[in-house]
C-alpha cells in the first residue's frame, strides 16, 4: 500500500557526485523509516543509509563522510547525496520504506555506475 518511485541513477566518473530521490505515496503513517540499500553484481543487498521520520540517521561505514541522506519538506520524500564516488559504489540502489509495524516496501531500483 506504499509505492516508491526512485530517480537519479546514471553513469558518473570516479570522484564525481550524484543525487538520488525517492518519493513515497500511499498509506504512509507518522512513524516510519526510509532508506537506501544497494546491491552490487554478485553481492548481497546491503544498507547504505536510513533516516527515521523522527530524525535519526544511520550510515554504512563505507559511505560515511561521502553520502548524506535527507528528507524533503514533504515527509514522504527522501534524498541521497553521493559525493566522491568510487568504482566500488557501483550497484543498483533501492529505496526502502519500513512502516511502524515493520512492513517493507521497495522501489524498483536505479543503477549507479561509477567508471572512467
What features would you describe in this structure?
The mean pLDDT is 95. It contains no helices and 11 strands. By secondary structure, the protein is an all-beta fold. Strands 2, 4, 5, 6, 9, 10 and 11 form a 7-stranded mixed β-sheet that branches. The chain starts with a strand and ends with a strand. Helices cover 0% and strands 53% of the residues.
What's the overall average pLDDT, rounded? 95
Low-confidence spans: none
Q: Could you spell the SSE succession in H and E letters?
A: EEEEEEEEEEE
Query: What kind of sheet is the major sheet?
Result: 7 strands, mixed
Secondary-structure topology with pairs:
Elements lengths: L1 E6 L2 E3 L5 E9 L6 E7 L6 E7 L4 E3 L7 E5 L5 E6 L8 E8 L5 E3 L3 E5 L2
Parallel strand pairs: 2-11
Antiparallel strand pairs: 1-3, 3-8, 4-5, 4-9, 5-6, 7-8, 9-10, 9-11
Using brief descriptors, characterize the structure shown.
single chain, about 120 residues, mainly beta, 7-stranded mixed sheet, 4-stranded antiparallel sheet, about 55% strand
In short:
This protein has strands at residues 2-7, 10-12, 18-26, 33-39, 46-52, 57-59, 67-71, 77-82, 91-98, 104-106, 110-114.
Amino acid at each position: 500500500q506504499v509505492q516508491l518511485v526512485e530517480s537519479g541513477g546514471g553513469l558518473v566518473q570516479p570522484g564525481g557526485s550524484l543525487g538520488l530521490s525517492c518519493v513515497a505515496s500511499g498509506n504512509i503513517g507518522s512513524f516510519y523509516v526510509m532508506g537506501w540499500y544497494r546491491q552490487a553484481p554478485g553481492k548481497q543487498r546491503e544498507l547504505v543509509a536510513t533516516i527515521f521520520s523522527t530524525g535519526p540517521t544511520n550510515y554504512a561505514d563505507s559511505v560515511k563522510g561521502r553520502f548524506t541522506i535527507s528528507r524533503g519538506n514533504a515527509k514522504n520524500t527522501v534524498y541521497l547525496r553521493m559525493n566522491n564516488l568510487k568504482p566500488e559504489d557501483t550497484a543498483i540502489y533501492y529505496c526502502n520504506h519500513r512502516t511502524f509495524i515493520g512492513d517493507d516496501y521497495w522501489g524498483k531500483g536505479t543503477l549507479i555506475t561509477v567508471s572512467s
